[in-house]
Every structure is written in structure tokens, then in C-alpha cells.
Amino acid sequence: MGLQQILALFLFFLSLSSAQRPNIVFIVADDLGWNDVGFRNPDMKTPNIDKLATEGIIFENAYVQPLCSPSRTAFMSGMYPFHAGMQHMALNHGQNVCVPLNYTFLPQELKKLGYATHIIGKWHLGFCKWECTPTYRGFDTFFGYYNAAEDYFTHTAGGYLDFRDNKLPARNYSGEYSAFTFAQRAVDIIHRHDVSQPLFMYLPYQSVHAPIEVPKKYEDMYPNVMNEGRRKYSGMVSALDEAVGNVTQALKDRGLFENTLILFTADNGGHIQAYSNNWPLRGGKFTIWEGGTKGASFMYGAGLQKTRTRYDGMIHAVDWKPTLVSAAGGTPEPTIDGMSLWNSIRNGLPSPRTEFIYNIDYFEIPMEGHAGIRVGDYKLILGYPGELDGWYRPMNGTQDDIYEEPVYIKGDEPVQLFNIREDPTEHNDLAQKTPDMVAKLRARFEEYKKTMVPANYPNPDPASDPRKYGGVWSPGWC
Ligand SMILES: *[C@@H]1O[C@H](CO)[C@@H](O)[C@H](O)[C@H]1NC(C)=O
Ligand SMILES: *[C@@H]1O[C@H](CO)[C@@H](O)[C@H](O)[C@H]1NC(C)=O
Ligand SMILES: *[C@@H]1O[C@H](CO)[C@@H](O)[C@H](O)[C@H]1NC(C)=O
Ligand SMILES: *[C@@H]1O[C@H](CO)[C@@H](O)[C@H](O)[C@H]1NC(C)=O
């Protein structure tokens, strides 16, 4: 055989193996609560999500960070935010910050395996220079916005446009609800996709983060919900569900669905004051209580052995990157914080993860959960857990329920300990009764703390002013 033939044969086998790689669709629902999905709460109308979840594997212990940017850092890099300086709050408009550029992102790993890579939706991992933005960090295309939140119809944040089609401002979508815009773009990409290549689509939807906005049709699906905010919010969840349905339908129409793996997760617990709900879990977004850190999450599709519908194993947001790389047939980097759980999840085996960090944030003003660790069944919280401490039912009064104002506490006190397996709703603080367990977890926490990179959370830079960029939030000022 000549060199040419060997090469041809090699390319042939390469194409065979890449043809077998699953398509991967990674859906992130922004601020969706634990109790905001139909498969947990029959008051919610999410038939498309419920079908995928109940025919797939529902995760009972898939943890996320208490906020957007930290969780997305973990999703993309497989690193804990406290190793990246990303652990304090969500990025604010105009900060000179992005996830360290020497971190490899999930789409970069998947590109090495031959994937076409697309992101549609919210980035929120920094954009002060182009190198920080999606098409410089492994995505072939980007359609969406850079900041934390914006108007669903005008696509403006703080009065300025934040909507982009790759690198260009997308000015002509004003008036169109983003769940439609994003679903339509995903459908278009699926229809145009060259099926000889595996597809990776990261869909971090705007839905269902504040502001509370939805076309009336979806709000009207919940006539029994008395509270206006909760009624609209519920409609937002149903619009998201319809968007998920449209994307899965497009995959079916294109013949791609059978070989697609779908991962769905919230980025943090539901934001209670913005009408999300995490009942019966304690707390919500901004907190390291379970209600802030257990994500509504499931997997569906290619490669999963359908032996069970629930998976109890411990999962952390840092694990999704290596898990998806494994599912794609690749080898995860050994140096990251995340572990591949692919073999465990797909076969229903115990998780190799036995501990994780909820947060380590020693920034001067603790706005969110400050410090916490899980080891086995136990969880240790040091100091301020975050803003809301209680257990909340979905709002259903004509008036919004009034919640307590957060009282910040500085430092590592009080110390609280819970057995999460026996007490997943965190009612029984065991710290006084079991000082040995407190000491054990604290020692482990101190080990992790030594590796902490201080939070990078500067004041907004006036150079970011969108008026310098034609009224559009734009990279180029750092
Ligand atoms: C990235 O650079 C920082 C600062 O130089 C270094 O501490 C860190 O180990 C690097 N991380 C990776 C993944 O290369
Ligand atoms: C917006 O403009 C782009 C580029 O000209 C075009 O491809 C797209 O279809 C337009 N979208 C709408 C909603 O008009
Ligand atoms: C889903 O697709 C249908 C049919 O094309 C369309 O009418 C609807 O607006 C789409 N919904 C979303 C959320 O994209
Ligand atoms: C909300 O309250 C109304 C009136 O009391 C009741 O009919 C309805 O079932 C409640 N809905 C939920 C979701 O609890």
C-alpha cells in the first residue's frame, strides 16, 4: 500500500469514528428553580422537558454554584470558580474581567474531536476584549448577549443593545421575545448543519431570569395562579419548554435526534424574589443552601443505558465538561477540577465524586454564600450562607410575599453542619452535637482554601461605556 492509500484509509477510519460521535446539546435554563419543572411540580406545564427527563435520567444531586457567572465558568472550564477568581457574584456590566484566557473551554476540547460548535444565548463570562468572547473561545458561531440580564424584547441591558450575531451587533430583532429568537436560530443551525460532522450546541437560554416578561399567551396558561409575578414566571417556563420542544423537533426532522445526547441544567437555584421556587429545599439563588446549589437537571439520549430514571450520585458543575468530553469519545484533561462521570451516569453506577466545594469567597462584602464544603453525606457551612434562609412555597397570593432583608455577617461564624442524605432540606444543624465531623470537614476545607485565587471583582470601568461603541455593549476596552 502506498502512502496515499494509507492516508486515505486513515481518513476513512477517522471519518467513521467521528460520524459515530454523538451530537451534544447542552441546555442551560437561567435561574430555573428546583420546583419549577413539571417532573417535580405538577402545577408547571413543561411537557417537552418532562418527556425528555422521564425518558432520560433525572439527577437528584447535580450541584451548581449559587450564581450565573460562577456556574458558567465551571460548565465551560471544568474548574471551580474559586480557582479562577470568578467566585464572587455574577459579573457586572463593564468590569474588566473574563475567565482566565489560559483555561481551555469545552467547545475547544470538542473541536479537537471534530465537532461543529455553536452557542446561542447568554455568555456572561466576560467581554472586555475580543479574546474573552465566544468565537475566540472555541465556538464557531455566537448568537446572543454578553451580560447577566436584559430586556427579553428590546435586547438592551442598562438601555444599550446587547445582542450579537457572531461579532456584529444584531439590531433587527427588537420586539421579538428571545425564547423564540434563540429557538429559531438553533433550528436554523440544525437544518444547515453538515451531518458528516458531529454537532455541539450550547443553549444557555435567557429564560427564565428576570425581568419577568412573557407574551400573554403563555401567562394565560396559568389562570389558577393568583400572584401576577408567579403567573408570568410560570408562562416564561412554558415558553422555554416550547423552545426545547422546537429544538428537539428540528433534530428529529434532520434525522439527528437518535444520535444526540441532551444535557439540561439550571445554572443555580431559583431566585425566590423573582418568583422562582425551590420548595422543599432551603434558600435559593445567591445562597449555598441546597435551594441555591442543587440544579434542576437531567440527561437524555445517545449512550445512556436506560436502566433507571433517577440518578442519585454526586455531581458538580465542574464535572459536565469532562463528562461530555468522555461522552464524545475524547479523553478529559487530567489537570482540571472536574471528573468524568460518563461511565457512572450512563451505567447507573455510584459517582466517583465524594466531595466538592460550595464556595470559597473571602471578598470584603459577602453578597452570596461565603464558604462551604460537602464531604460524603455531610455539609459544612462557614459564616454567611447567602441572603434568604428559609423554605418558601410558590407565591400564590395577590400580593408578593415579603421576605426578610439579608443580614450580612463577616467571617467564618456561625458554623453549621448538616447530614444532607438524611436531611436534604437542612432543618437539623448538627454542629454542636458532632464537633469531630465539623473538625474533619473544616480541615478538608482549609486544604482547598490554600488553593483559592482571590475574587477578581473590580469596579466597572468607565471605558466600557456603550456610548463609545454606537450604543452597543462591545469588547475593546481592556
Ligand atoms: C493560568 O495562569 C495562571 C496565572 O499565571 C496560573 O496560576 C494557572 O495555573 C494557569 N492555569 C492553567 C489552566 O494553565
Ligand atoms: C436580521 O438581519 C440579518 C442580517 O441582515 C438577517 O440575516 C436576519 O434574517 C434578520 N432578522 C430579522 C428578524 O429580520
Ligand atoms: C415553536 O415552533 C412553532 C412552529 O414553528 C412556532 O409557532 C413557535 O413560536 C415556536 N416557539 C418557540 C418558543 O420558539
Ligand atoms: C392558587 O390559589 C388559588 C385560589 O386560592 C387556587 O385555586 C389555586 O389552586 C392555587 N394555585 C396553586 C398553584 O397553588
Describe what you observe in this structure.
This protein is of the alpha/beta class and 478 residues long. 26% of the residues lie in helices and 16% in strands. The protein contains twelve helices and 18 strands. The strands form four sheets. A ten-stranded mixed β-sheet has the order 9-8-5-4-10-1-11-12-2-13, sandwiched between helices. It has a four-stranded antiparallel β-sheet with strand order 15-16-17-18, covered by helices on one side. A two-stranded parallel ribbon has the order 3-14. β16 (371-375) and β17 (378-382) form a beta hairpin. Mean pLDDT is 94; it is low at 11-16. Bound molecules: 2-acetamido-2-deoxy-beta-D-glucopyranose (4 copies). One 2-acetamido-2-deoxy-beta-D-glucopyranose (NAG) binds next to loops.
